[in-house]
Amino acid sequence: MKALLSVYDKTGLADFARALHAAGSSLISTGGTYAALAQAGLPVQQVSDLTGFPEILDGRVKTLHPKIHGGILARRDLPQHTAQLAQQGIEPIDVLVSNLYPFVRTVSKPSVTLEDALENIDIGGPAMVRAAAKNFPHVTVIVDPADYSWVSDRLKNGGTSLDERHRLAQKAFAHVSQYDAAVASYLAAKGDGLPSNLSLAYAKISDLRYGENPHQQSALYRPAHGSGGFADAQVLHGKELSFNNILDADAAWRVVSDFSEQAVVVIKHTNPCGLAAHDDQAEAYRRAYEGDTTSAFGGIVGSNRPVTAAAAEAMKGVFYEVVVAPGYEADALETLKKRKNLRILQLSPVAGSAYDLRPVTGALLVQTPDASIDDPTTWQAVTSRKPTSQEMADLAFAWTACKHVKSNAIVLAKDQALVGMGAGQPNRVTSVHLALRAAGDKAKGSRLASDAFFPFPDNVEQAAQGGITAIVQPGGSIRDNESIDAANRHNIAMVFTGRRHFKH
Question: Which of 90, 95, 389, 456 is most exposed, with minimal Cβ within 10 Å?
Fold first, then answer.
C-alpha cells in the first residue's frame, strides 16, 4: 500500500504518517511535507525519485506526472487498468493526504499583490484531490487534519469502508470547490461590474438552535474569501446566539458602521427604534434609548466605538438580548457580564468585497451593497427658506438613519438623535403618520428624512401638522413642485439629495 502526503497545513501530520507507516503504507511526499516527515524520522520517498523527474518551475510542477495520477486514478477492479499499470511500471497509490495553499489567508492581507495571489493558487494539489475523490471506491482521500484520528483507527483494523471513503470524497470535492470559488471571487473583484458567473463558497461555522421560527433549521456560514464581521465574531459572554439575534445584531452593526462620528443604536426586528450620535457615549446611548423606550425592551444595542464603563452603567435596568461593538473597556465588560442572559459580541470590519444576496424563488438576486457615501454639500435646497446649520446636521443624520429603515421609510431626528420612525408601510403617508405618533411631542421642531421622493404633497402637509421644520428627500417626482409649494407655505426647508435608499 502506498500513501502520498502533500499538505500545506501540517497539523498532526507526523503522527498520522506514523499511523500510515504502522499500517504498512510506504510513504511518498513532496517539498516541505517531505522535509517535515524526514525530520520526524519517518522513511519517506520523494515524488521526484518515484517519477524520475525533478521538480521544475520553482515547484510549480512536481506531482503532475502519469506515475502519480495513474497510480491514483487506476481502477483496481478493471484488469486492463491493472495491466496498464504493470506495463508502465506504475504502482497504485491507495491513500492521498493533501490540503491546499493558503490562498484565502494570502489575499486577505491588505498589502497582497496580484503576483502573491497567483503564486498561492494551487494546481497540483487540487488535481490530485479531485483524482483521488473521483476514484474513492479504491482510494482514501483526506483533506482535513480533523479526520486523521479516526482514519488512523480504521487503518489499524483493515482500512476504511466504502461509505467512509464516499464521505471523505464528498468532503474533498467541497474543499476544492471552496478553494476554486475563493480564487474566482478574488479575480472577479478585480474586474468591473458583476461577474457573468458567480461562485459562492461558504463553510459552516456552527449550527443554530433553529431559524426565524422553531420549526426551521438554520446554521451560520463563513465565506471562503473574506474575513471580519460575523465570520470572526467573538462572543465574550452569554448563551448561544440565535438566528434572529444574529440578524438583529447585524442590523445594529450596519447602522453604526455607517457613521463616522460616535453613534449608538437600539435595534428591534432589524429596524433602528433608537439612534443617536454624541461625543459622550453614555449620552449617545441615553438619547438612543429615549427614541423609543417601549420598543427598546428585548432589543439589541450597537456601538461603533468600544463600549465605555459609563455607557455600560447607563444600560442598567433595561433588558437587552445582545450588545455588539468593536471592543469593550475592562470595567464595561465586567458590568455587562453581570447580566446572565446578555450576549456580548465583538466584531471587526469586513475585509474584502461582498455582494448583497437576496434569494427569490428558484433564483438569486445579486447587487453591490448600498455603501455609497452621501455628501450633504451636494444636496440641493429647493425651498425659499434654506436649512439652518443645525437643521442641516440633523437632516444628514436622519438621512443616514433612513437608509437602514425598511421602505417606505420615514425618520424624524433632532439634535443628532432619532425621535420617531415609520417603516415598511405600503403607503408613505402611513409611514409619516407612524413616525409622528411614535415621536409624540418630540416631533415638534424635528427634521424628517424620506428614503424616496414624495409622490404627493400630502406627506409635507402631514409633516407640517406635526411640527417638522426641515425635510430631506431624493426628489424626482413629477409632482415635486407641489411638495415644494406645500413646504414653502409652511416655512419648511426642504433639500433634495438626488439619490434614494430603498431597503426592502
Answer: 389
